Amino acid sequence: MVIRNPEIFDLGQDRTKFWGDQGNRLDWFKPWDKVLEWNNPFAKWYAGGKLNAAYNCLDRHLNGARRNKAALIFEGELGDYRVLTYQDLHREVSRFANVLKSYGVEKGDRVTIYMPMIPETVIAMLACARIGAPHIVVFGGFSYEALKDRVLDAQSKVIVTSDGSYRRGNIIPLKENVDQALKTVTCVEKVIVVQRTGQSVAMQEGRDIWYHEVVKNIPIVCPAEEMDADDMLFILYTSGTTGKPKGIVHSVGGYMVGVSTTHEWVFDLKDEDVYWCTADVGWITGHSYLVYGPLANGATILLYEGAPDYPDKDRYWEIVEKYKVTILYTAPTAIRTFMKWGEKYPMGRDISSLRLLGSVGEPINPDAWMWYHKHIGKERCPIVDTWWQTETGMIMITPIPEVTPLKAGSCAVPFPGVKMGIVDHQGKPVEKGDSGYLVVCEPWPAMLKTVYGDDKRYEDTYWGQYAGMYFTGDEAKWDEDGYFWVIGRVDDVINVSGHRIGTAEVEGALVDHPAVAEAACVGRTHAVKGQAVFAFVSLKEGIVVHDSLIAELKAHVVLKIGSLARPDDVFLTDELPKTRSGKIMRRLLKDIAEGRAMGDTSTLADASIIDLLKKNVNQKT
Ligand code: PRX
């Protein structure tokens, strides 16, 4: 193993030159004039260059041996499977791109994709990219209300969905959700429906179209649109500190260079690998490291539709055995779940094909890291713990396999070409051994371009705290060797099973219930999920508490957002702790939820509330 000082990455490196060199890994219709035009905090990467993301993921692999290589291996929850070669995928994407065009979708028009994890989802994303229509993938677990908010914010013209989605043998009615969402929406002209489960669904005359019917008689040639490097590739909504999710905008050139470089280096990609990223395409990990990065690199990707415990708890290991997966990229919450189930499940399968393991989405506790290393990696596979965000688009802090010595629980050091730091509240770098706020010190290629329709929110949220630096919202420690240890969010965002949930969103959903006067949510440490939502709720005057009220409130959150945001605990209280100016003191509620000693209570308007809350919560839990 080559052991390098991690700081080598930071010694006088010319980052713009580095990313200029990496730009050459893609095929460009027109070369860029300038690697970076930086108009703080707005960046144009590869300014003047023209390219197409789908062309880079497909067409350029067709002249040679890769043409017949498996691009996508699909495993359905029911055990059905399909393999699409690069040539197959190219044909299907071109076909569907022509379908979109035939319904009037033009460059710049937005298309929402609300789908299960099936090949048509990847096909739809790449078809959008091919014609320059930004896609908005909405995770299939989001409720119709959440879907509606996103469709409206992006003003989507078309929705691609399916009749339903399999989950642990049940069917999630995606098309029905779309119908609910569109009741009061006027911007959507067409809904294209993929037949997956075969259950009967209502089709609205003139609006709804079956995918399998429209792809039949359509040309299979569709030229890839020449996009400016700075044009929008997609919008992906994520939670922030306010109630309204933000539409994170990624542009074609910088994003594609960033994800393909990191994908190749971090996963030490070889042509013969079978690469499996378990994230849903509805999240950024699915965009960058299931679709765009690996396909740009000509990898074979595995797409699994279902749950890890269906039909049994060894499903993942059965899949590894069946397809001889070599690289597995998953989340700590999944690893902790496997730990809970026990090692007999991976032991019952031949998983010796694995050679590299990855982790993403939340801090991985050393126990889970060791279990992953021992029982899945058999003490021979390196683990890359990768830190990044929807906004960063690409992996930012990570070990490089066989180069960076690993430490269980640390995501190691910034990727080459990325400059990150840890600063105190005044923006001054902390000393080694100290912790502080995690920032990015220089622009990077896959950085978000803006918040959709709201440049000011982009500037204020990310660049407004420390001059010239991007604020991640995370807290981290810098150890004596220069390694980064990410502790967690310092803003009002909760990380539940690696999913970002804004406390304000859950509070908004609770307050929407007719019985609720006020709500405050915090994250509480959870052994498997990392964090769980703990909600404190005060009811309107005169509301009589009945047995099913708590269940009703939880169900209301599921209706408004989706089951991923369902609070584990809802605690009813007459009052919430507030400052004299009326601000809810979430910090104290967090102390109560975690059952730990109280922080400073001197600014409270009425300190007696705290004692009462503590007593009552303790009695209940
Ligand atoms: O708090 C960090 C955590 O996930 C947040 C980003 O969430 P999202 O935009 O949904 O993207 C998740 C997948 C890239 C970060 O602000 N996070 C992500 N990866 C790690 C992590 N925390 C610790 N270690 C990681 N490897």
Describe it for me?
It catalyses: acetate + ATP + CoA = acetyl-CoA + AMP + diphosphate. This is Acetyl-coenzyme A synthetase. It comes from Desulfosporosinus hippei DSM 8344. ATP binds at residues 361-363, 385-390, 474, 489, 500. CoA binds at residues 167-170, 285, 497. The chain is an alpha/beta fold and 621 residues long. Helix content is 29%, strand content 24%. It is built from 18 helices and 32 strands. An eight-stranded mixed beta sheet has the order 12-11-8-6-7-14-15-25, sandwiched between helices. Strands 5-4-17-16-18-19-20 form a seven-stranded mixed beta sheet, with helices on both faces. It has a four-stranded antiparallel beta sheet with strand order 23-24-26-27. Helix 5 (144-154) packs across helix 6 and helix 8 (252-266) crosses helix 9 (284-296). The longest helix is centred in the first third of the chain and has 17 residues, at 86-102. The protein is globular, with a radius of gyration of 24 Å. The N and C termini lie far apart (49 Å). Residues 1-9 have low confidence and may be disordered.
